[in-house]
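Before a colleague's protein record goes any further, I have to sign it off. Thanks in advance; the entry in question is below:
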Amino acid sequence: MKIAIVGCGALGSYYGAKLCRDGHETHFLLRSDYEVVRRQGVEIRSADGNFHVQPHCAQAPEEIGLAELVLIGLKTTANAQFKNLLPPLIGRNTAVITFQNGLGNEAAVAAIVGAEKTLGGLCYVALNRIAPGTILHLGLGLIVLGEYQRPIQERTRHIEKAFNHAGVPCRLTENLEQSRWEKLIWNIPFNGLGVASAFGYEALESRTGVLACSGQGGPSAFGHEALEGRTGVLACSGQEGPSASSCETSVGYPISLASRQNCLATDELLADPNWKQMALGLMDELVVAGNTLGYSLPSSIPDKMIARTLELGHYKASTVIDFELGKPLELEALFMEPLRQSERSGVAVPRLKALCRVLAGNC
């Protein structure tokens, strides 16, 4: 197949490299890494075996032309660029898979390319981009693949086989929306709490004290005095990016970019009783909200996810790394839309609401 990878960070580069190694004509649409990847290719470092590939490199989608398969690994903060990036790649029989986290991404793709060309992929994998063109694979790798608003098609099965043949475990889901919600049960706590940990556990206490957790919560960048106030909501001043050296909490405490390095990894969150209880509480809220929305989510999901997370060791989720680097976060798709849907279902989600307040006020 001729495959275009749109968004060549850790995720796009890893799966693109796997397909490239398996003999597919794989094109990477690159920005800052273009010169490095053009000269040196892509290196994957993994306990499963290191390997190197030399994909086709492009700086504009017009250089790639029509593709049979398009894989989107962009952050959701770049979704406004779909209208420029996707049309030059789309032919009559092109399939487009968004590997992005959160809710609403398939709809955004479908608005550009059509629902009949749109699929979603849930990636259960631990990756970090450690240098331009160099990806560290820490574990896992499963893709759960589904069609957007329609049953599995023959082309879906063909893509599934291509991934499995390339050494990427892949299985199909007939209910993409439920699979998306199930992945949120991991993504929201370990992306969100990893960022929130930079502000201290106390930042997540609600104004009514309805959260079940209490006490001191491990490393805190500022201590609870910085986060006192009736709501615990943090307000950021200035713009993200190189010029934003700090922001302020609602009580006037500076939050420097250097302090962002205090974010906790997954093993650190789970080693602290309060953070672990908060993570489990968030997971339970999302299970209840998902079931109320009509999904079928067993109550055993949180414990199973915790067990798999412990196997990863010291891992920081992608949102945490973005926060540490001062980049915009995927707030809308990953946190705000799940909160809106949970509240519309009538389920009380105080932990999720408190987490969204902290993140929205800072990022």
